[in-house]
Amino acid sequence: MSILVVGSIALDDVETPFGSRKRALGGAAVYFGLAASYFTEVRLVGVVGSDFPSSHVDLLAARGIDLAGLQTVEGETFSWGGKYGYDFNARETLYTHLGAFADFQPAIPERFRKTPNVFLANIHPNLQLDVLEQVERPALTALDTMNYWIERTPAELRAVLERIDILIINDSEARQLAGEPMLRKAAARILEWGPELLVVKKGEDGAVTFTRESIFAVPGLPLDSIVDPTGAGDSFAGGFLGYLAATGDRSPEALRRATIYGSTLGSLCCEAFSTEKLTDLEPQEIEDRFQEYKRLTHFEHSPFLLDA
Ligand code: AMP
User: Fold this and answer.
1) For a pocket test of ligand 1, which of 15, 97, 122, 169 has the largest count of ligand atoms closer than 8 A to its C-beta?
2) Is residue 121 part of a domain?
3) Element (H or E) spanning 8, and its range?
4) CB 191 within 8 A of CB 214
5) Is any atom of ligand 1 closer than 6 Å to the C-beta of 234?
6) Would you say the CB of residue 265 lies under 6 angstroms from ligand 1?
7) Which residues contact 26 (CB under 8 A, 6 or more apart)?
8) What digits encode the pLDDT tens for the residues 18-46?
9) Per the domain annotation, does 75 fall within a domain?
10) Neighbouring C-beta atoms of residue 64, cutoff 10 Å
11) For residue 130, what are the domain limits?
């Protein structure tokens, strides 16, 4: 079943210890859409400026992403600059130029309105609510946000949290949102506010999925090469929700597999700059990485302790 994503489309300037890229394709909706496109049909809603290269549009279309909701306006595309050292979990934002994104008003095309799965990437919570008003009772809704909205628009964020099924954020955001340093307690509090499921991304250290009854944690897979972690969080969300949308399965087992597919797409994303890795993955490469996570986390219990 198809999935609708609404969020940023960007031109990124990125520096890592392994090189740099200027005006590379990026943005939360782009990373999400590319990752999810390996599982299901993706419909994208976002805005770009008149400077956005047509080659980037072609690249998204080549992955089968439906671009009927892509608005092009006069002016500059949203751009973001980021710099990483050897600690990939700590990145420095060099600049954020909103450009066309500053006045973004998501307009969901008529034929997207019945999309059964919806991902609201990191935008103003009022715009996220506005998207929910435009779509017709999706079966599954998920949301990302960031510290900026947690600090500046807490009431609006709480209002949108009441209306979604899944919140996907990183660990510092979860702690900040809940006002609670202990992740397990923070998760319990957030789950009281509406979402059925909270997915906490921990960058290189993996991810934890909380429901009111269960916790599932996956460690970070030590990679041979991390080149550029930009977009890993959104690629995680794309893999996670792409799997759930494709299968329609929300059993506890499916949520665990979704967490592994999220980790799989997030980790693959880091192996090249920008979206380079995500544009031409072979399905087998995705399955191989999934199996690596299985081997990484599998163990048997074999009691050996002496009786007291
Ligand atoms: P991630 O590494 O998953 O957090 O995603 C990084 C992507 O998010 C980059 O491609 C940026 O262009 C985009 N991005 C950075 N800041 C913002 C923001 N304030 N709003 C929306 N997207 C952003």
Assistant:
1) 122
2) yes
3) none
4) no
5) yes
6) no
7) 10, 11, 12, 14, 80, 230, 231, 274, 275
8) 999 999 999 999 999 999 999 999 999 99
9) yes
10) 12
11) 3-297
